[in-house]
């Protein structure tokens, strides 16, 4: 009955593909490619695809090992390479686990891979040899199996299959129905014995055909055959579009069509029910008991004696003390550009003079506590690593933390040791998640959002005169706050010297820099002040001068080029810009044309741009403001967002025309 249902479902999917005008039908047979597959030159639903997954089969089942169950995962993948860029899909990496001393591990068995090419009208198979298969350790418990399939070029059909047998029977990996290339057909089968109680979750925009039915299972336990009931799950997807990374999406996997199975518990006959479901409070307790996490929160300040030189007792406010401690620590230890949740020994970190953000953060917490300033870790999943699930607590989803500091009983500020150019509450955008959990003892842990912890503001004033030769000469005074200050400091740090920094500024803004003065460019402080004396040449002829009254553009072009979009738009942080420009018209000229005043905004008012230009005698004043208050826009909002940004860019590029009297 089960096979009949699945065959019927497969035939239905094939019919749908054919009905949609697709010229090639899925071929679930491996080792027997068809001429249609080899002759395929383009994937009609996505002609830009460099490769397409023609068929991907995943089967999950259980078997009895020596002392317990083992999870068996079988994979079969068939890929058609359509363009030279698609040959990269012949390089495959399979991650797996292997704990120290072989306590628990995963074995990859039955790896087989081949490339098929058409030569003189005949199908030629090139089988992968074992000498191109390598193992690589990438962590204490993580391994990679890597291989490259030979003789792959545009037009090649790739096939590979393997099986993973795992001691981690309690954990089934999420099944991703989509990839970064389109998929013609994919199928996921899971057979679960009655003893395992799973919570099944599906999400994503693409449709999957599903079957959920009872099954009769036979399990071999030693020389005995155990018969039990179970559940068989089947998911099928066809013509699934590619899910590509995007400049305005932190983690595309958050929106991938997928199936997640979370083990709730195991109920063996004659044994007590064992729950695998955790609460966030239990995860708090686990972390606080961990030797590489909780124990670090109890350690004494390793820089206690040296810290006396800071004379913290002479400082007035907590913020001043926090900044002094942080700057002192950062002069001792350099961030190695790695994010982590657990840390090494603080002695080792200080000796090496470098460490992950976790390594340095734990030392920072101990120093702050020693100074009488409460500090706690705020654990999270980085924005580029996926959203942290509230409803399905998982310690595996946590990958780093920032430091939550309580300078007063009612306030919190945030800091991370990866910050090189920021300040309090100016975190790297990748850490500004809306779901972080402050881990505190005595059940005082709490959820916080780090999306809007600090203001990000650029405030600029330009005072300049326009000559009859079309040269705008004047000054620009700018205050950079929050992320704007961080970005400017980063530009300054990456420049070879101040001369190169000024040269890049001149090139970016198409100006001549006559003088450049900055304050706070290298300090750990809330803002940067910049004064620029400049000249900028505009178009001039016998009758007219054409000048952009903004002088320094905010948005030169729209970043939203796609005609349509399937993913949401995610902005890194809230944003505010305020520009005031005062221009003096040259003697003998009058304003012939100037841009119209305009107010541009989204329907919900969360993005707003104002452009107000006035004239009084020979003075033209432009007041320009921009405000972004919302970070997530659904894909259905994209047309409005795209149109708005195009209008803002158009407004930024409008010219004022001065006519000679």
UniProtKB/TrEMBL annotation:
The keyword Kinase does not apply. InterPro entries: DUF3857 (IPR024618). Residues 71-204 form the DUF3857 domain. Residues 1-19 form the signal peptide. It holds the Pfam family DUF3857. Keywords: Signal. The keyword Signal applies. This is DUF3857 domain-containing protein. The lineage of its organism: Bacteria, Pseudomonadati, Bacteroidota, Bacteroidia, Bacteroidales.
């Amino acid at each position: 009955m089960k096979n009949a249902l699945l065959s019927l479902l497969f035939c239905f999917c094939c019919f749908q593909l054919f009905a949609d005008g697709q010229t090639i039908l899925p071929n679930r047979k491996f080792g027997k490619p068809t001429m249609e597959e080899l002759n395929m030159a383009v994937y009609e639903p996505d002609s830009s695809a460099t490769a397409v997954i023609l068929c991907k089969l995943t089967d999950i089942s259980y078997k009895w090992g020596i002392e317990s169950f083992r999870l068996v995962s079988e994979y079969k993948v068939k890929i058609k390479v359509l363009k030279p860029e698609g040959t990269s899909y012949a390089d495959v990496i399979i991650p797996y686990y292997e704990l120290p001393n072989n306590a628990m591990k995963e074995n990859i068995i039955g790896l087989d891979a081949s490339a098929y090419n058409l030569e003189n009208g005949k199908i030629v198979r090139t089988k992968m040899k074992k000498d191109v298969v390598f193992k690589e350790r990438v962590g204490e418990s993580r391994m990679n199996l890597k291989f490259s399939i030979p003789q792959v070029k545009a037009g090649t059909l790739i096939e590979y299959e393997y099986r993973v047998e795992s001691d981690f029977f309690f954990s089934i990996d999420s099944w991703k129905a989509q990839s970064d290339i389109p998929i013609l057909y994919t199928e996921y089968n899971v057979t679960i014995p009655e003893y395992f109680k799973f919570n099944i979750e599906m999400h994503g925009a693409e449709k999957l055909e599903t079957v959920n039915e009872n099954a009769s299972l036979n399990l071999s336990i030693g020389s005995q055959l155990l018969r039990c009931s179970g559940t068989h799950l089947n998911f099928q997807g066809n013509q699934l579009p590619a899910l590509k990374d995007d400049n305005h999406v932190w983690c595309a996997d958050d929106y991938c069509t997928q199936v997640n199975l979370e083990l709730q518990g195991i109920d063996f006959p004659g044994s007590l029910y064992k729950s695998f479901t955790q609460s966030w409070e239990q995860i708090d307790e686990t972390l606080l008991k961990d030797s590489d996490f909780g124990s670090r929160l109890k350690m004494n300040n390793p820089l206690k004696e040296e810290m006396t030189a800071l004379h913290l007792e002479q400082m007035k406010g907590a913020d001043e003390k926090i900044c002094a401690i942080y700057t002192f620590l950062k002069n001792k230890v350099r961030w190695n550009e790695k994010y982590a949740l657990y840390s090494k020994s603080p002695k080792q970190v200080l000796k090496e003079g470098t460490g992950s953000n976790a390594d340095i953060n734990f030392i920072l917490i101990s120093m702050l506590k020693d100074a009488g300033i409460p500090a706690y870790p705020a654990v999270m999943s980085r924005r580029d690593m996926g959203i942290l699930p509230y409803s399905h607590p998982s310690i595996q989803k946590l990958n780093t933390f920032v430091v939550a500091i309580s300078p007063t009983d009612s306030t919190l500020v945030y800091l991370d040791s990866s910050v090189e150019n920021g300040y309090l509450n100016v975190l790297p955008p990748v850490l500004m998640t809306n779901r972080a959990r402050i881990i505190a003892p005595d059940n005082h842990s709490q959820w916080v959002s780090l999306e809007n912890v600090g203001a990000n503001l650029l405030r600029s004033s330009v005072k300049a005169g326009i000559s009859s030769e079309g040269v705008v000469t004047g000054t620009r005074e700018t205050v950079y706050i929050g992320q704007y200050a961080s970005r400017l400091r980063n530009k300054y740090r990456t420049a070879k010297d101040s001369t190169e920094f000024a040269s890049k500024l001149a090139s970016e803004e198409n100006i001549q820099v006559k003088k450049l003065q900055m304050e706070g460019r290298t300090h750990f402080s809330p803002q940067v002040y910049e004064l620029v004396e400049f000249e900028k040449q505009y178009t001039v002829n016998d009758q007219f001068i054409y000048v952009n009254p903004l002088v320094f553009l905010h948005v030169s072009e729209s970043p939203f080029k796609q005609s349509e979009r399937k993913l949401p738009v995610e902005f890194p942080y809230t944003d505010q810009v305020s520009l005031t420009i005062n221009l003096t018209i040259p003697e003998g000229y009058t304003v012939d044309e100037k841009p119209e005043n305009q107010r541009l905004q989204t329907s919900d008012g969360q993005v707003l741009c104002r452009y107000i230009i006035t004239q009084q005698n020979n003075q033209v004043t432009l007041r320009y403001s921009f405000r972004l208050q919302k970070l997530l826009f659904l894909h259905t909002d994209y047309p409005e967002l795209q149109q708005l940004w195009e209008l803002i860019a158009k407004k930024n590029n409008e010219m004022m025309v001065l006519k000679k009297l």
